[in-house]
Amino acid sequence: MTKEYVVGMTGASGAVYAIRLVQELCRAGHRVHLLLSESVWQVFTLEMGWKVEHGDLAAVPTLFGLPEDADLQIHGSRDYGAPVASGSHLTAGMVVIPCSMGTLSAIANGSSDNLLERAADTHLKEGRPLVLVPRETPFNKIHLKNMLATADAGAKIVPAMPGFYHRPETMDDLIDFVVGKVLDAMHVEHTLFRRWGDREKE
């Protein structure tokens, strides 16, 4: 069944996780609202090697390798007119991936200085699934307290920590494991990695 999801992408390292998640959700036929922070554009250049102008939303679907019929709605950080800025707009959940420590802090403290933070706050207040994927190491005590605060408020913390029991052979295997765990947290079916015990069934 087609559902509607929100994917928030911050400037933390790990852009490839968000890209893979959007690809998978769109491939499954879901509608995706992609919320981009201001620092994402620099990460696109540094990590992905993309030569894209700051704020060029129209270039994103092609850069993400999405088909023309993908149901992707892209919103800039100040687009408060976006549907997902309001709790009256129903979604099946939101993922912030990767989640920077600055964004984590804003969500933990109820600050809504941009659309991404506002949408995350909306999902918490409406009791809808919110998954945060922190990509930082090591964590300091403030980071840990903020994770606990968001978890207490109803968010699920899924750190970008790939497992190895599925015997990954490529970088894509490691990326798919993390994205698969995010999809599990959102109760979205997928086949991105081999589950524990599946090897023994062969």
From TrEMBL:
Amino-acid positions noted as binding FMN in the UniProt annotation, renumbered to this chain: 11-13, 37, 100-103, 135
Name of the protein in its database record: Flavin prenyltransferase UbiX
Keywords: Flavoprotein, FMN, Prenyltransferase, Transferase
Species the sequence originates in: Tumebacillus algifaecis
Binding site for dimethylallyl phosphate: 165, 181
Ranges where the Flavoprotein domain occurs: 3-185
Keyword set includes Flavoprotein: yes
GO molecular function, one term: flavin prenyltransferase activity
Matching Pfam families: Flavoprotein
